[in-house]
């Protein structure tokens, strides 16, 4: 542990309990354009700790958020399943919260407009907030009004002055990405109408622990969230939760619905159910968190053994998906160009670049048809069903797909 005291970003308690120390890592979504650039990439400590007071799991602020998100390579629209997930949510939200032409919907970290486009098509006024200038520009070109800014209380106040408060604030996979989580939640309070609703999705810490999803730990994920930790934080700013839904995205996420403390919205059974599950799992006891790190070693041995045997047998292995989680896994396992031939990704913004750290060159998926690898290691394992459907053609040469989490396994064909 560093000699510098690390304090919890939610409550200020000194962090003295380790969760997972993954050592130095390059930025997971930073894709070098040449091998020379890849060899000279900076690495930063990636050390997750847990707060003994509020139970927020978090990594230290070793990299400024501006360095990670101001020019970003992740475009949500390149995942059809995620776009469909967003579309279904907009239909649900319009119905449940009675949203229409007189409403105002704000999405924080709105990316390329993958979600807000569905509200726009339904005639619901929207505003996106997106810190990455390159992605905000794409959203604007699609006709999605987008503010290029980091969200916090200052941004929220400016938005209230310009357009008024929001009936619905959406934030999918953003709460974990902010190093200033208190200011972020304060901004939610400022921006929300008296009877408005906050809907936020984030990967559930309970699932991360149960399924050893250690590869979801990377620098841009500053926090790893439980319902326990989020309820404590919201309460501090006069907000409360009234419903929680468990959704399958990103290996198992929570969709929380929040409101002002004074709202008359009643608590739903979903909230009570998740509270009970976390209590049963011991997420309110600090000793529970010490058992996580040793489980990573089991997966490491499986993956290294698989790659070593493939090499001995003369089999060709490629990686599918230049995902951030894949960067963490490859780097922590010290896997590189000697072990995997190359990676493919459907996102053209990643193609003709290199994976950070491991230095795998990233090609278009068409390369798989051309080179006919024996094994494909699916790095974004949360999308393994979608990906195996796309790769069904590799059965022509008896190719097989594998996923590394929760342990290395062959993915069956559907």
From TrEMBL:
Species for this entry: Aestuariispira insulae
Ranges for the Methyltransferase putative zinc binding domain?
A: 8-69
Record's keyword terms, sorted: Methyltransferase, Transferase
Q: Name one GO molecular function term.
A: methyltransferase activity
Entry protein name: Methyltransferase family protein
What's one Pfam family the UniProt record gives for this protein? Methyltransf_13
- The C-methyltransferase domain covers 248-406
One of the GO biological process terms = methylation
- CDD domains, from UniProt? AdoMet_MTases
Would you say which domain of life the source belongs to?
Bacteria
